[in-house]
């Protein structure tokens, strides 16, 4: 290289270096710009982070403050909870899922006193074991380990029930446990010592009250019996004296004795029933019974009082309603006797009608039976209609002040109906009459003793002649239900010119028969004389006539019609003893320990031609029965040596052993009430007569039991 070329090269090198430097400066400037921008970004981020940090620091302080407040509130709530648990007298404890105690108040730990092993962390089985070993729990006659096993089994039982424990100090603790969803067991130990003491006092008071009620009931029952026994003599002798010749003053005195005695008996019965209801000792005895027959028996019982007033007694029983039901026949009759008796009592003219309708409930199968007793009496004012169902209440006013009574009859009847699940009500118009109604739900009885009979196919015209429209209507419905369409008339006069046929049947009232000549009734197949009460012996009947008692039982009407034969074939005569058999007197045995009642019975039956043998107790009656079985046995119930029920049981056993026919046995008792009746019937007795005895009822039983070969006659009264 030449020396002259050096400056050029140096210049080129310097220019290249400057270019490189410029490029580097540019790159450095760009880098500085980026660094500055990044630094600015970092600065901004630092500022933001500082701001966020400051915000978080404030929030942290706020959260910390809230936490401190929450912890303080929690500690306060916990302290208050435990203060509350410690303040209550009942024990409280919590066991975890492993059955270890995790919390308990002092009341729960108190029975364990200072036992160190009973503390937080103790296992439930260990606590039970300590309770037995330390004698804390009185486990009675149960062996200690058995008691622990029983308590552990109960602890694990999901259906556990509260348990009362007796402690050594005669304190009673009632344990109530409940397991939580988390598996813990919460236990509450309630001190029930005072409650147990009060229950004991109440039990003792209840036992005393029950004993007092039993004593009261026994006293009233005995009082009823003791009063009825002498009243039997008073009223029966008064009835006998009334049959003699008396002047007006004597008859007035005698009637006063009779009415006062009968009123006293009603009071005795009402008080006895009311006391039983109040003591809740009155129970029902459901059994199959015939409702229609029961109603007719009540009517027959009250017909003498109605006949004295010339009041018509009518029964209208729904033809489509069954007669057999299951219920307490005695209580149903008692209610009906009260309602019908009141109707007769408060009615001077007109009628007393018992109407029965019913409808079967398809769901329960029972019949809703409605019984209404309608009268044409004095009626009841509207403001008094609910009042009369209260105890010792009567519709007291000028119209009925002359009628005596306890004011208990309707109250007892309504409570009896309520006890049978029914209801009772009254509808009345003052001066026009009243209707007392009751509703009962009764299942129909599957047992039916109604014969499968029907009216004869040859039957022609059937005429009903009765001046009382209600009687005609009832009999018309009964005949129509049997498929017979009768002709009904109120006028008797046209019968005298009637063109009778041998297939005709006539129903005529007793009053109508008295207005006709017997020859006018010689044509029809049968004449049924409709009578109220036992009037057969006092009627002069045509040869083709027979008595039919009103109200007419559906079953009796059907039986009578089915036995008829056309007029050209005379009705079969009553069965008589064979010509070669000498008639004998009917043998009647009577057991009665009271001399007055013996005299009463002899006097009441003096007009009946029977062979009456009187004994004083059941043992003598049994001996007399074995020696010569009677046709009928009347027996008192309460007698020394052997009572009437025991004697009846022995007689029934003797009949079975000897193969004898069952002798009708009738109880004569001063005991009243369905409970006594149930025991009497259970002994084998067939019928019950309540003292004071009535001649008509005695004679009815004698006539019903009289055998065909016995000659039975009645002396003129």
CATH class type of the largest domain = Alpha Beta
Strand content: 15-25%
Instruction: Report the major sheet.
Output: 6 strands, antiparallel
Structural class: alpha/beta
Query: Using only CA atoms, what is the Rg?
Result: 50 Å
CATH superfamily of the largest domain, by name, is Histidine kinase-like ATPase, C-terminal domain
Number of strands: 24
Shape: elongated
Q: Helical content, roughly? A: 40-55%
Spatial sequence of strands, sheet with the most strands: 2-1-6-5-4-3
Given as residue ranges, the uncertain stretches (5+ residues, pLDDT < 50) are: 395-405, 568-579
Output the keywords.
single chain; 6-stranded antiparallel β-sheet; 6-stranded parallel β-sheet; Helix Hairpins; 717 residues; Beta-Lactamase; alpha/beta; 24 strands; elongated
Summarize the topology:
Elements (H helix, E strand, L loop, with lengths): L5 H82 L3 E5 L5 E4 L1 H4 L14 H10 L3 E2 L5 H13 L6 E5 L4 E8 L5 E7 L1 H50 L5 H31 L8 E4 H19 L2 E6 L6 E4 L1 H17 L5 E10 L5 E10 L33 H11 L3 E7 L3 E11 L18 E4 L3 H13 L5 E3 L15 E5 H5 L11 E6 L13 E5 L4 H9 L21 E8 L3 H10 L5 E6 L2 H10 L4 E5 L7 H15 L6 E5 L4 H9 L4 E4 L4 H11 L4 E2 L6
Parallel strand pairs: 8-10, 14-15, 14-16, 16-17, 17-18, 19-20, 19-21, 19-24, 21-22, 22-23
Antiparallel strand pairs: 1-2, 1-6, 3-4, 4-5, 5-6, 7-9, 10-11, 11-13, 12-13
Helix pairs in contact: 3-4, 5-6, 5-13, 6-9, 7-8, 8-9, 14-15
């Amino acid at each position: 290289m030449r020396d002259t070329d050096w400056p050029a090269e140096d210049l080129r090198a310097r220019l290249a270096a400057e270019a490189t430097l410029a490029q580097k400066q540019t790159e450095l400037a760009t880098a500085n710009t980026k660094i500055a921008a990044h630094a600015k970004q970092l600065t901004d981020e630092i500022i933001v982070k500082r701001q966020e940090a400051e915000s978080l620091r404030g929030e942290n302080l706020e959260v910390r403050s809230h936490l401190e407040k929450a912890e303080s509130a929690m500690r306060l709530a916990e302290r208050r909870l435990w203060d509350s648990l410690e303040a209550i007298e009942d024990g409280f404890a919590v066991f975890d899922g492993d059955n270890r105690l995790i919390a308990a108040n002092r009341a729960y730990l108190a029975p364990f006193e200072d036992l160190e092993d009973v503390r937080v962390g103790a296992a439930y089985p260990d606590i039970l074991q300590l309770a037995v070993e330390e004698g804390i729990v009185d486990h009675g006659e149960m062996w200690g380990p058995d008691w622990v096993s029983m308590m552990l089994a109960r602890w694990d039982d999901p259906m556990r029930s509260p348990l009362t424990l007796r402690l050594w100090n005669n304190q009673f603790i009632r344990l109530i446990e409940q397991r939580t969803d988390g598996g813990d067991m919460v236990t509450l130990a309630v001190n029930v010592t005072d409650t147990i003491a009060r229950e004991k006092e109440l039990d003792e008071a209840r036992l005393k009250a029950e004993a007092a009620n039993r004593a009261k009931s026994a006293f009233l029952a005995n009082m009823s019996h003791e009063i009825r026994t002498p009243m039997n003599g008073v009223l029966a002798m008064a009835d006998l004296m009334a049959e003699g010749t008396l002047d007006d003053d004597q008859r007035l005195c005698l009637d006063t004795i009779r009415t006062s005695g009968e009123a006293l008996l009603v009071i005795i019965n009402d008080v006895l029933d009311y006391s039983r209801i109040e003591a809740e000792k009155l129970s029902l005895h459901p059994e199959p019974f015939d409702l229609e027959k029961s109603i007719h028996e009540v009517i027959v019982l009250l017909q003498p009082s109605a006949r004295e007033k010339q009041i018509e007694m009518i029964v209208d029983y729904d033809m489509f309603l069954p007669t057999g039901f299951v219920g307490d026949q005695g209580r149903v009759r008692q209610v009906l006797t009260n309602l019908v008796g009141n109707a007769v009592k408060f009615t001077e003219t007109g009628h007393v009608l018992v109407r029965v309708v019913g409808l079967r409930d398809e769901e329960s199968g029972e019949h809703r039976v409605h019984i209404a007793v309608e009268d044409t009496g004095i009626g009841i004012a509207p403001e008094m209609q609910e009042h009369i169902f209260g105890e010792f209440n009567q519709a007291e006013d000028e119209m009925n002040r002359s009628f005596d009574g306890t004011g208990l009859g309707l109250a007892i009847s309504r409570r009896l109906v309520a006890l049978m699940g029914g209801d009772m009500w009254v509808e009345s118009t003052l001066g026009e009459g009243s209707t007392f109604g009751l509703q009962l739900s009764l299942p129909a009885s599957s047992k039916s003793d109604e014969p499968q009979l029907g009216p004869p196919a040859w039957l022609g015209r059937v005429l009903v002649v009765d001046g009382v429209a209600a009687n005609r209507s009832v009999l018309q419905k009964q005949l129509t239900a049997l498929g017979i369409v009768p002709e009904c008339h109120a006028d008797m006069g046209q019968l005298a010119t009637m063109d009778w046929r041998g297939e005709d049947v006539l129903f005529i009232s007793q009053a109508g028969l008295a207005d006709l000549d017997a020859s006018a009734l010689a044509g029809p197949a049968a004449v049924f004389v409709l009578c109220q009460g036992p009037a057969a012996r006092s009627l002069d009947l045509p040869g083709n006539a027979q008595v039919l008692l009103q109200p007419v039982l559906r079953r009796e009407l059907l039986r009578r019609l089915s036995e008829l034969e056309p007029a050209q074939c005379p009705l079969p005569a009553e069965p008589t003893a064979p010509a070669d058999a000498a008639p004998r007197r009917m043998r009647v045995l009577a057991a009665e320990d009271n001399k007055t009642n013996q005299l009463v019975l002899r006097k009441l039956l003096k007009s009946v031609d029977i062979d009456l043998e009187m004994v004083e107790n059941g043992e003598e009656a049994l001996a007399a029965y074995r020696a010569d079985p009677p046709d009928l046995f009347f027996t008192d119930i309460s007698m020394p040596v052997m009572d009437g029920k025991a004697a009846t049981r022995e007689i029934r056993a003797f009949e079975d052993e000897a193969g004898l026919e069952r002798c009708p046995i009738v109880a004569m008792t001063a005991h009243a009430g369905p409970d006594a009746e149930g025991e009497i019937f259970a002994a084998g007795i067939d019928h019950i007569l309540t003292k004071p005895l009535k001649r008509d009822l005695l004679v009815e039983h004698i006539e019903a039991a009289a055998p065909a070969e016995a000659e039975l006659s009645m002396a003129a009264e």
